[in-house]
């Protein structure tokens, strides 16, 4: 399966993102082998840095480091896929500022919801950052389901039991992008959350 063939934005209505670097995975993936669905914030500022755009891509480098911090023996994004983990972003275009408007999260959550539906064997959701959390909460609200993750600082709400579509949902911090190397205090928590997700599917 090629995700990009199904997940397409028709008219790019969002005003606070960079449409020119719209990014969805363009590699072949076997959806039946995916057990962990990892969602980070937005597509990178440079399309070359997207998850599956080669070993020099920034999102690949920081994600591999995060999984290595968690004790996983991975050296490529294919290794991460082989673990059963698929990585994507809540927002498919790049940011133009620091934050992302609620309307953009709501609009792009329709694409995310469709993307999630492509992976029927998912057992755990990793929600890496506030935007991912908000997008999943939006999907739940739209489907008349209760809020998945409560309002609150991530460090306070981590480690509790939350569920999305009947599967464990783990709130964490984003592991994709330059902030991962800068905010070292969060790396330990990211590693713990990734480790827990991998443990849940073992």
Structure description:
This protein has helices spanning 58-69, 77-82, 102-116, 130-142, 154-157, 179-182, 184-201; strands spanning 17-18, 36-43, 85-95, 124-128, 163-164, 167-172. The protein is α/β, with parallel strands linked by helices and 202 residues long. It has one domain (3-201): Uracil-DNA Glycosylase, subunit E. It has a six-stranded mixed beta sheet, with helices on both faces. Strand 5 and strand 6 (167-172) form a beta hairpin. Helix 3 packs across helix 4. The mean pLDDT is 93.
Brief synopsis:
Helix content is 36%, strand content 17%. The protein contains seven helices and six strands, in the order E-E-H-H-E-H-E-H-H-E-E-H-H. The chain has a six-stranded mixed beta sheet, with helices on both faces.
Helix and strand topology:
Blueprint: E1 17-18, E2 36-43, H1 58-69, H2 77-82, E3 85-95, H3 102-116, E4 124-128, H4 130-142, H5 154-157, E5 163-164, E6 167-172, H6 179-182, H7 184-201
Parallel strand pairs: 2-3, 2-4, 4-6
Antiparallel strand pairs: 1-3, 5-6
Helix content: 25-40%
Biggest β-sheet: strands ordered side by side in the sheet: 1-3-2-4-6-5
What best-fitting shape do the alpha-carbon axes yield?
globular
Question: How many E strands?
Answer: 6
Strand content: 15-25%
Features:
Uracil-DNA Glycosylase, subunit E; 36% helix; six-stranded mixed beta sheet; 7 helices; 17% strand; alpha/beta; 202 residues; globular; 6 strands
């Amino acid at each position: 399966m090629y995700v990009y063939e199904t997940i397409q934005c028709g008219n790019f209505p969002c005003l606070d993102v960079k449409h020119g670097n719209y990014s969805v995975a363009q590699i072949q993936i076997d959806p039946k082998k995916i057990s962990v669905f990892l969602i980070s914030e937005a597509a990178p500022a440079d399309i070359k840095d997207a998850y599956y755009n080669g070993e020099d891509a920034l999102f690949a480098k920081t994600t591999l480091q995060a999984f290595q911090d968690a004790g996983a023996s991975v050296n490529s994004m294919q290794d991460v896929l082989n673990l059963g983990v698929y990585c994507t972003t809540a927002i498919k275009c790049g940011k133009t500022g620091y934050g992302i408007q609620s309307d953009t999260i709501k609009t792009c959550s329709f694409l995310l919801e469709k993307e999630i539906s492509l992976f029927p064997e998912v057992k755990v959701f990793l929600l890496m950052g506030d935007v991912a959390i908000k997008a999943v909460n939006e999907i739940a609200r739209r489907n008349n389901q209760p809020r998945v993750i409560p309002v609150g600082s991530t460090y306070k709400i981590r480690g509790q039991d939350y569920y999305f579509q009947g599967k464990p949902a783990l709130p964490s911090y984003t592991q994709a992008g330059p902030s991962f190397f800068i905010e070292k205090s969060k790396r330990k928590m990211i590693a713990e959350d990734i480790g827990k997700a991998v443990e849940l599917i073992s």
